Structures are given as C-alpha cells and as structure tokens.
Amino acid sequence: MPFAEALFEDVRKRTADTVGVSREPYGTGEQTAVDAVARAGGELGLEIKHDPFGNVYLTMPGRDRSAPGWITGSHVDSVPLGGNFDGFAGVVAGLTALAAFRKAGLAPQFDVTVMGIRAEEASSWYGGAHDGHIGSRAALGLLPTAELDSAVQSRTGTSLREQMRKAGFDPDAVGRGKPYLDPARYCGYLELHIEQGPVLEARGFPVGVVTGIRGATRARSCQCIGSYTHSGAVPHEYRSDAVMAVVELVRELDLEWERVREDGGDLVFTVGKLYTDAKVHALTKVPGEANFVLDFRSQDDAILQQVRVAAERLALEIGQRRRVRFDLGSFSLHRPAAMDPEFRRTLLSGCQDLGIRAMEIPSGAGHDAQDFAHAGFRSAMIFVRNSHGSHNPDEAMAIGDFAFGTRLLAWKLLQGA
User: Fold this and answer.
1) Using CA atoms, how far apart are residues 149 and 129, in angstroms rounded to an integer?
2) Res 130: pLDDT
3) What is the second-level CATH architecture of the domain 2-214+336-413?
4) Helices 2-14 and 28-43: angle between axes, nearest 10 degrees
5) Which DSSP string corresponds to 303-342?
C-alpha cells in the first residue's frame, strides 16, 4: 500500500484545484496524471505504449506472451472540482498489483496491461451531442467521428477534435481502419472503481462484485413553451404556465418510476437541470419558457423504451391540458452492459478464498467497462466502498478497503480466463 498511497498523493497534489482535483480531458491535469502513471510504470520496468488517442498502456510480460492477456485499468481524468479516487483508483490498483508481483518475484501466466484511459468524464467538460467515454470508445472503435466536432468545451468553445490535436494526439485516427484494441488479443477486461453510491457503506461491505452497468436514455435539451403574462392578472384557466406544466410532467414520471419499482423493475430517474430564462423571468411574470433534462437509467432495455414512450405521451397530454407545447428533443441511448457471469462467479469465489466480505451490486453509473463489454470483451468490475458519494471533493475511500479490492484484482490477474 505505500506504493499506492504515494501515487495517489503525488497526483492529488499535482492536480489540486481550489477544492478537490480537476483533471480536464486532454488538458494539463489529465496529462499530469498520465505522466505520473507512465513514470511509475517505468520504475517497475513495464513496457509503455500510447495509442493515437492518448491512452497509456503499461504491460508486464507474462510467461506465455503468445496467449491473450489481461487488460485492467480505468480513467485518469476527473469532473471539475472532483475527487481523487473516481477512475484513478482503478489505474493505481492495476499498478499496485504489478508492483506486488515484482516484489514477490511472480510472473503472471499471461501479459497484464494496465490502461490509463482518457476523457471518460468528457460529458462534465464538453457540451453538445456526445456520449463521453472518449478514450475507451476511440480505442475500441466505438466512437463516431461526428462527436469530435459536436463535443464543444463549455468554457472555451473548443471542439474535442481541436483539443485532442492541441494536446498532441491524432483525432483523425478515430474510425480509421481496425480498432486499436482487439478483443481477440485479450482474455478479458477488469476494472476496479470506487462505488459512487451509498450501498456498500450502508450495508457494511468493503468490496462489491458488479452484476451489470445500467444503460441510459436521456433527453438533454427539453423545452416547454407557454406564454409570459402578468402573475396577478391572469386566472388559472387562461394561463399557459411552462413551469407548472414541467412540474406536472416530472411528478407523473416520478409516479411511473414508483410503478416500475413496485413491479420489480430496475429504474432510476433524474431531472438534473430545470431552469427558466434569467434574461426574461421575473417575480411578477407567469413563466413562458422552461428548460430541463431527463435522465432514465436501467439494466433493462425494455424499461428504457417504456419510460421514453411514457415521457413523450405525458408531455403531449399535459401540454394540451395546460395550453403549452413540449419539445423533448431527441433521446440518446446507452445500452445496459452485463458483466461476464463466469468472471463474477470467480471473483466471488476469490473473495471467499481471501476472506474478503463482498456483495453483488449493480452499477448505476456508467463506466469504461460497459464500452469494453459492448466491444466484445469479457468484462468484470470490482467496487470499493467509498463514503460521501462521488463527483465531489469529499470522496473517502479507506486505504484498507482499497487493499481488499486490489488483492482481489491481483488474485484474478493470476488466474486463467
């Protein structure tokens, strides 16, 4: 653990912001983390490579180099003013496992590659039509080239294509020829990550074995148009109040969520933005416009389709009744990703052998592991208990819990697929 603690602290200090850390995709903070990871890999004598998209690969040769090897890791970037462990813990865990192999004089049966992945959190920094997870999807051949231009840095107006090129990488390699990562070359992808919710903490487990990663259907630019009128002079039956209509829509979708849960379905629903126009709204005006987003997540494709249809139906009904017009725009779709059943069973068996208390748990957040699964890699995830949530500076992963997760990861990397 001293190796891990030193790497965590070094990168935290180098990427510290006013609070927490900020490691912007294809920016200085992310590059600092990549450089630190590469430096640590060099000190361990690992083979170091980079792909055209800036991802870094650190490989310990196995006894049989002709056989498919393991790939493990996670992302090195962060959200603005985020925590030090989100993503980065998975990269440090992979390197810590290889450092332990070196110290013990162990050579794995197959090559083990630790991957430091770029721009998983791109959605927190770049607006426009894109789905984040840039580094993994680029390496796996899943990134549409159009997203390089539609993703625009919220602060500077720079496109993702421009930013990648400015950082010294090759955005034109996206979608050109064969993917950089071929599932035939690997026996599987393993990702350790902090849990970003409260379940392990609440139930007293240091480690979780992930069953699957929820998919999502999202409407990012919803709008309700009514009429601006005087708040005191217009009776209820004549109003076209955009805020009241959106509130009713959100309430009805919340009830739909309850019905799905009561039927045993898996669903979470969030309205992460809801606002009126600050240039026009006022205390004494009936609001004539409201903007919002819809985010539905589930492990079930059919439920994602069901709630999207429900949202469109309810918007039409409420719009007619309240004399407003809803425009939900287009819904994006991220398909759910099930983790490999055999890997899950093996990891649970490993927990028993190593004396680690663990539970199976779904992931509500998206991860690079889902992209690997969609690209045909056998994939698995290990969650480590984390207090105070994630995407904030207060992430609190105990080093003892991290040790349990890393021990399980190392154990699996020494096994066959």
Assistant:
1) 9
2) 86
3) 3-Layer(aba) Sandwich (3.40)
4) 150
5) HHHHHHHHHHHHHHHHHHHHT-EEE--PEEEE--EEPPHH
301: alpha, beta or left, given left = phi > 0 and alpha = psi -120 to 50? alpha
Q: What is the DSSP string of 197-208?
A: SSHHHHHT-SEE
Cα gap 97→406, rounded to integer Å: 7
Residue 190 sits at φ, ψ, to 5 deg, of: -120, 130
Radius of gyration from C-alpha coordinates of the chain: 23
pTM score, whole prediction: 0.89
Distance CA 64, CA 89 (A): 28
In this predicted structure, what is the pLDDT of residue 334? 86
Neighbours of 335 (CB within 10 A): 13
Per residue in 192-224, pLDDT (tens digit) is 999 999 999 999 999 999 999 999 999 999 999
Longest dimension (CA), the chain: 82
Cα angle at 74 between 25 and 184, to 5 degrees?
115
By the 8 A CB rule, do 12 and 21 touch?
A: yes
pLDDT in tens, 369-387: 999 999 999 999 999 999 9
Q: Are 221 and 128 in contact (CB under 8 A)?
A: no
57 φ/ψ sector (left φ>0, alpha ψ -120 to 50, else beta): beta
Amino acid 48 reads I
CATH of 215-334, one of 3.30.70.360, 2.60.40.10, 3.40.605.10, 3.90.1150.10: 3.30.70.360
99 alpha carbon, distance to own chain's centre: 27
**Domains of the chain: which residue ranges?**
2-214+336-413, 215-334
Dig out the tokens for 224 from the structure. 């309700």
Cα torsion through 243, 244, 245, 250, rounded to 10:
90
**Residue 53 token pair:** 């998209």
**What is the spatial distance between Cα 191 and Cα 89, in angstroms, rounded to a whole number?**
10
**Nearest of 50, 48, 63 to residue 101 by alpha carbon:** 63
Go through the chain and tell me how many residues it has: 417
Contact between 226 and 287 (Cβ < 8 Å) = yes
Q: Do domains 2-214+336-413 and 215-334 have the same CATH topology?
A: no
Helix (H) or strand (E) holding 275: strand 274-275
Contacts of 145 (CB under 8 A, 6+ apart): 174, 175
DSSP code, position 278: T
Task: Compute the distance between CA of residue 199 and CA of residue 361 in angstroms, rounded to an integer.
Answer: 8
